[in-house]
Write a structure and sequence with these properties.
Helix content: 25-40%
Shape: globular
Strand order of the largest sheet: 1-5-4-9-3-10
CATH class: Alpha Beta
């Protein structure tokens, strides 16, 4: 995982949060949930690191593209709350949380440097985890009851993200792409034999 993250263009600083626990045994990390912080970076990191807040995320990306890691990938960050996707509850147990520094009513867009850092991070995670594009979602898509959360909100360009993740050379199909390559190699070997 560290090797994949080292390919991300921006520096990944470790800030650390005590608000996490272990993932359930055998949990497969196959979902990525995007949030906005609704606060500037410093107060966001303060809240996400305060034990009494009982909230955290794996990564926070500032407007300039700087990435801070708060919770290790092997651990279960507390970012999605009461949630479900594709009929599975407890999204925190099998997901990665990414928070973008964005303040509704103040910010008019997600800045280019932040967007590029997010795409780099998502692609790096999809290279090493079996996360499919359709499981890259917003908090608004998984929060229960529906409508409880609005982030990353209407200014987040999902079509632009989907396009970036389906671009040529994108490894984002994770385990699916690896299985397909392995299958093609095995087919070639069987034809030769």
């Amino acid at each position: 995982m560290r090797k994949a993250l080292s390919r991300v263009r921006r520096t990944v600083g470790v800030h650390g949060s005590p608000n996490f626990n272990r993932r359930p045994e055998g949990a497969t990390i196959d979902t990525l949930v995007i949030h906005y912080t609704a606060l500037e970076l410093a107060p966001s990191l303060e809240i996400l690191s305060a034990p009494e807040a009982q909230v955290s995320t794996h990564f926070v990306i500032d407007r300039d593209g700087t990435i801070c890691q708060l919770v290790g990938m092997a651990d279960r960050a507390w970012h999605a709350g009461h949630s479900a996707i594709h009929g599975r509850a407890d999204v925190n147990s099998y997901s990665v949380g990414i928070d973008l520094v964005f303040v509704p009513g103040v910010d008019e867009q997600y800045p280019g440097e932040q967007w590029a850092a997010m795409v780099d991070l998502v692609k790096a995670l999809m290279r090493v985890l079996p996360i499919k594009s359709e499981n890259v979602v917003g908090h608004e898509h998984v929060a229960l009851p529906p409508g409880r959360k609005q982030d990353p909100g209407p200014l987040f360009d999902w079509n632009k993200l989907r396009s970036a993740l389906s671009a040529p050379g994108h490894p984002g199909r994770g385990a699916d792409a690896r299985r397909n390559r392995k299958s093609k190699i095995e087919n070639r070997k069987s034809r030769v034999a």
